[in-house]
Amino acid sequence: MDRFARGQFQVGYEERIDLATLRTKRVGKAQHERERDELDAILVWKDENVRYLTDLRPQLISCKSTALNGALLTPGTDPILFCSGGERDRVDHTMPWISEVHTIPIIEDRGLIEGFVRRTLVPVLESHGLTKGTIGIDECNTILALELRRQLPDLTIADGDSSMLRARRIKLPEELQLIEEACAIGDAVTATGIDAVGIGVREMEVAADAMHTLFRLGGEYAHVMTPFVASGEHMAPPHRISSDKIIRNGDIVFIDIGACWGGYYGDIARATICGKPSRQQKEIYTAVYQSLQAGIEKMRPGFTNEDAADAIRAAADEYRLGGRFLSLFIGHGVGIGANEPPYIGESLPGAPVMEFEPGMVFAVEPLIWVDGVRGGGGVRLEEMIAITEDEAHVISRAPFEERLML
Fold first, then answer.
1. Continuous H helices in 135-273
2. Structural domain tally of the chain?
């Protein structure tokens, strides 16, 4: 497997990813997990699960995730697509691997949902002998779940998201290649943002320049819906948006935008400095950098997510900053989902301890902030890491800021 981004285009002079084979492999993994959980079918609505099963790249509308498109995974057949009317003609004309597709409304209005279940979903389930089985659902509108139970009282609804998350956890070689490409774009997006930083530039201008690079290089989406550029005191505590704040001399500037390509995400972030840093800013940056490296060192088979989190916190303690982490996990899985389990450093109840396995991919993102620092005392650094049979493979390559190192 290549450990670099070979290029996004299909070309005749070298072999690249066979996307049709990748689709078949992904569906096979999902079928395996469906059988393992003794589910007769899985009905998905989360954007990333629909794409995993069908390769549909839809128009995404803000605040309408899980309401626009769905897919049904049944034994022995291709995934069945339920799509918005805005996608239907394109699906019919350009996606020949979809053998069955149905047009659906936005899953929100009660009357439209009742009509969809009665006229579309129930007949599909009947045609596949699924009216009395167990169907796993990843996530859906409550009205839809209630209506499905009302019209099919002998149908058992179960958890289908855990099956899909297990299928997605260990990445296929082709998936790792797509993530390499996403990170190549994400590195360029990050570098563009860093280059845009200057006195008198607004945070939103930095985001605008970075987003231009994202789309110029063929990126589909940013890692986050709200591109994250925070400067100076906006990083202590972090304001996770891009605002009208003007960047000033002495400000730390943080950029977290990343990139999606081919349905897979690269989540990369860096902090830079506008002007000359203070000693305290250097201490915070160096503590975060050393913490990041200590965590990456533990990201290999034989160690756990807890081991990595402990190493990250211990390295920060060397700078008396171990108690200054953002109250959020320190790392998360990445793939066809921008942010997915498993997590590193999750402190909330129920967080599982798991061993690193080859094929897992993570974004590791320690963030330390200290209040009252002139020009801001908040730093996050984020790397994309693939677990291998040996030491971790660092996919991201965006430069670090030597001016902020002790």
1. 142-151, 161-169, 173-196, 203-216
2. 2
d(CA 327, CA 315): 17
Burial of 185 (0-12, 13-18, 19+ CB in 10 A): buried
The boundaries of the domain holding residue 341 are 170-404
List 380's β-bridge partners, or say none: 367
| Per-residue model confidence as pLDDT tens for the chain (406 residues) | 689 999 999 899 999 999 999 999 999 999 999 999 999 999 999 999 999 999 999 999 988 889 999 999 999 999 999 999 999 999 999 999 999 999 999 999 999 999 999 999 999 999 999 999 999 999 999 999 999 999 999 999 999 999 999 999 999 999 999 999 999 999 999 999 999 999 999 999 999 999 999 999 999 999 998 999 999 999 999 999 999 999 999 999 999 999 999 999 999 999 999 999 999 999 999 999 999 999 999 999 999 999 999 999 999 999 999 999 988 899 999 999 999 999 999 999 999 999 999 999 999 999 999 999 999 999 999 999 999 999 999 999 999 999 999 9
Asked if 152 and 228 sit in the same domain, the reply is no
Query: Of 168, 202, 218, which residue sits at a domain end?
Result: 168
1 within domain boundaries: no
pTM of the full predicted structure? 0.96
Q: Are residues 161 and 278 in the same domain?
A: no
Which residue has 């992904």 as its token pair? 26
